[in-house]
Design a protein that fits this description.
It is a single chain. This protein is an alpha+beta fold and about 625 residues long. Among the domains are: about 90 residues, Nucleic acid-binding proteins (OB fold (Dihydrolipoamide Acetyltransferase, E2P)), CATH 2.40.50.140; about 130 residues, Gyrase A, domain 2; about 80 residues, no CATH class. About 30% of the residues lie in helices and about 20% in strands. The chain has 18 helices and 22 strands. Helix 4 crosses helix 6 and helix 4 crosses helix 16. The longest helix has 23 residues. The C terminus is likely disordered. The protein binds one RNA strand of 77 nucleotides through strand 1, strand 2, strand 3, helix 2 and strand 21.
Length: about 625
RNA sequence: GGGCUCGUGGUGUAGCGGCCUAACAUGCCAGCCUGUCACGCUGGAGAUCGCCGGUUCGAAUCCGGUCGAGCCCGCCA
């Protein structure tokens, strides 16, 4: 057998220590005859009486140790006492395994260490779950409680290593491109993002609080004013909102900002960076299309029903209005929707024509959950004719027209949503598309389909508060040709209304999506004071409020602000997707549960009364039972 | 704030009104074993079924509440 198994490169600072000469992943046939010492955890023990096999494990791999009672009675006696997860130091001679006894599964499988001296560095209780069977299912709360044991297992370890490589590649790419990495404060002031802030009371300023940053948005803009024309940071961000599999209260963003740039220039850099980083981190995963496809928000919504489309499969949305146009269709839902200026659109699920009643019901429930009033369907038979419960209203011709419009093939199932709201139709069909695309296995798992979505609407009308809300970020710039739209219908900039031309303005905003997930988003910012004031007025901020909330940055802009723009990319999501995960807890060393608790550290915890007293705080409770206690 | 799912020896599951004095696998403990690599063989210990209450002659099993975990809606650029 040849010694062709790759040996990982030795880091600049040797892995050898007084406890070990080598790691458990590096011994090869060429090392036979050497006397070495290894240190690691007992991965598994196979006791044959006079002969004990110990699989010794560390981060780098596993090496089999044999302890022979005849050769080394003392070592054998110690090995006899060991159990799984004991930490050992073992000295012995590297020997080629007997012919036919090699283990192909192990990088070190051609050799074994003949243990002469075994020392127990640390004993271990029986772990609460299997560490040596990485595929065995374990309740996630147990994994969270004993995270340090979960990290001993290969799958999580490898995801953390991947994430480390990702961040390293990001740093490399930015440094090469002349970016400066600058840290910004964690103890900050409330920033204008829409999420709830985490609050930290100040002892030195009793009654005042810091807010943890939801992102370093304002600070990076201030760095642009400061003349740092290319800034980036791997920044921890905090948002006190309800959690999901892809949302944690604290998360990490790649935050970057550039000066003297256009939208095009920022996208150019970010795209090149993403390609470089992807190739460095997951060289085995092909990028579907370069340059990344670009869609306007409008187009993405029309074609995919999503501003973060999964482009690994087709299933584009189809407008059925042309097929239904002349006269009335006889199906009231469609007629009324079209008459009201609403939309009737469809998505075609390939090969699902034989869906059972309960499957259709389930899809209908899915559609309802996302706001649709119902879900119509047409199943395409082998002869190409459409069959549908609503055929009796529509008539054969119109059903055929629907099949034709959807370009559906025999065996396909056409799912139709009708609603006065264009956005709702898009949203529901988009979700169906995403869900079915995955269920039907249409998406190639290994492919990385990045794309850009840009030209988002600047604002959304906030009915409750009677003002325009920035869709993205209050500093986002408007596309130059829409600048004139940033006015109110009334003429008074502080009297916004739903009819304002501003509702049509598009922002210089761009999102990058990967396989149906939003990876990040950014914009070219407004750097001119005058335009910023107009935009803020539309968002319902009076001059006083503007200064109260954004005084610092407004003042800074008066000292000469360069045109600038940037982006923020979610590192947790990115590493999760690169590791084939959809749950960001799987790429975080110490994540929190959905209720925001840390099962390992038992956080959050009751504060020491003295800490409260020092801060001048008292807990008065927010629920009846709390109030009753105080 | 709301909806849904789950909670049974250390772990993963089965059992879903009496046949349960709770089963299986694995782990654990003890003994045997010199070529295993999910070693093997023999024996043993280990759960009152998350918690509280109710229904019932009888509850792991049904109902209500509660606690914990997850998924989703709202929320979150």
């Amino acid at each position: 057998m040849s010694d062709d198994r790759p040996v990982p490169p030795e880091p600049a600072f040797s892995l050898a220590t007084p406890y070990r000469d080598a790691t458990c992943g590096e011994l090869r046939a060429g090392d036979a005859g050497r006397t070495v010492q290894l240190a690691g955890w007992v991965h598994r023990r196979r006791d044959h009486g006079q002969l004990i096999f110990l699989d010794l494990r560390d981060r780098y791999g596993i090496t089999q140790v044999v302890v022979d009672a005849q050769e080394s009675p003392v070592a054998h006696a110690v090995a006899n006492r060991t159990r799984n997860e004991f930490v050992l130091e073992i000295k012995g001679e590297v020997a080629r395994r007997m012919a036919g006894k090699e283990n192909e599964e192990l990088l070190t499988g051609e050799v074994e260490l003949r243990g002469r001296e075994v020392e127990i560095l640390s004993e271990a209780q029986t772990p609460p779950f299997y560490i040596n069977e990485p595929d065995a299912p374990v309740d996630e709360s147990l994994r969270l409680r004993y995270r340090y044991l979960d990290i001993r297992r290969r799958p999580l370890l490898e995801r953390l290593l991947l994430r480390s490589e990702l961040v390293r590649a990001i740093r490399d790419a930015h440094h090469k491109a002349g970016f400066v990495e600058i840290e910004t404060p964690i103890l900050l002031k409330s920033t204008p993002e829409g999420a709830r802030d985490f609050i930290v009371p100040s002892r030195l300023q009793p009654g005042s609080v810091y807010a943890l940053p939801q992102s370093p948005q304002q600070l990076k803009q201030l760095l642009m004013v400061a003349g740092i024309d290319r800034y980036f940071q791997i920044a921890r961000c905090f948002r006190d909102e309800d959690l999901r599999g892809d949302r944690q209260p604290e998360f990490t963003q790649l935050d970057l900002e550039m000066s003297f740039v256009t939208e095009e220039r920022v996208m150019e850099f970010v795209e090149a960076m993403i390609i470089e980083v992807s190739r460095a981190t997951t060289p085995d995963r092909p990028i579907q299309e370069i340059p990344f496809p670009r869609f306007t928000y409008e187009e993405a919504l029309e074609r995919f029903g999503s501003d973060k489309p999964d482009l690994r499969f087709g299933m584009e949305l189809v407008d059925l209005a042309p097929a239904l146009r002349e006269g009335t269709t006889g199906f009231r839902v469609f007629d009324e929707t079209l008459a009201a200026g609403g939309r009737v659109k469809a998505v075609t699920a390939p090969g699902m024509a034989d869906a059972t009643r309960s499957q259709i019901d389930e899809l209908t429930q899915f559609a309802r959950r996302h706001g649709a009033k119902g879900l119509a369907h047409v199943a395409v038979a082998a002869d190409g004719t459409g069959h549908s419960p609503i055929a009796k209203f529509l008539g054969e011709e119109r059903v055929a027209a629907i099949v034709a419009a959807a370009a559906a093939r025999p065996g396909d199932l056409i799912l139709i949503v009708a609603d006065p709201s264009r956005e709702l139709v898009a949203e529901v069909l988009g979700r169906l598309r995403g869900e079915l695309g995955l269920r039907l296995g249409l998406a190639e798992p290994g492919v990385l389909a990045y794309c850009w979505v840009h030209r988002f609407p600047m604002y959304q009308w906030d009915t409750e508060r009677g003002r325009w809300d920035a869709t993205h970020n209050p500093f986002s710039g408007v596309v130059p040709e829409d600048e004139a739209l940033l006015v109110t219908a009334s003429g008074d900039p502080y009297e916004p209304s739903r009819q304002d031309p501003a509702g049509k303005a598009r922002a210089m905003q761009y999102d990058v999506a990967l396989n149906g997930w939003e990876l990040g988003g950014g914009s070219v910012r407004i750097h001119r004071r005058e335009l910023l004031e107009r935009s803020f007025a539309l968002q319902g901020y009076s001059l006083e409020q503007m200064h109260e909330r954004f005084g610092g940055i407004l003042e800074a802009f008066d000292f000469g602000a360069p045109p600038h723009g940037g982006i923020a990319i979610g590192i947790d999501r990115w590493s999760a997707l690169l590791a084939y995960q959809t749950n960001i807890r799987e790429v975080m060393a110490f994540p929190k549960t959905q209720s925001g608790t840390d099962l390992m550290m038992q956080a959050p915890s009751q504060p020491d009364p003295e800490q409260f007293a020092e801060l001048g705080l008292r807990f008065v409770g927010i629920r009846p039972e709390h109030v009753a206690e105080s």
